[in-house]
Amino acid sequence: MIEDRIQRQVLDMYGEVDRAVTAAGPICVASGKCCRFKEYGHTLYLSNLEADVLLSNAPPYEQPVSADFCPFQKENLCTAREPRPLACRIFFCDPSYQETANRLTEEFLHRMKDLARENDIEWRYAPLHHFLNHEAHTNPKRERGPVSDVQTPGLPRSRVGLV
What we know:
Shape: globular
Distance between the termini: 27 Å
Oligomer: single chain
Number of strands: 4
Radius of gyration: 15 Å
């Protein structure tokens, strides 16, 4: 588990992302497409720092977690809205926003990596279900908690965190 001060820095970064996204003004019609990964042909990637914040603050979720959809989506809405990772904050289906999404993703992933490096935290980047299932395997009695040693060999990623 990362230290509280680092979690606060991640949450502060999330606030910056949210303000930048709001300023860009993408349109969301709450279709839920962003969270139905298999159906729409993408994968949600996040870092171990983001996974730690998510697992420390998200509601309980059913196990095992599938790569097909987000376990936090209920009735096309996010039940883990506050601790959701960068890609969830940045991704919108709005075609006019894609260039901005790519730029924001690159900027904030770079900053997240820097935060890990500055605090001697090994960087890991993997699909959501890897982190959630790893947590359930390593801490079976906990509904959520930190992730510290998921193996993520050279995984590809898209420019917006969703592939």
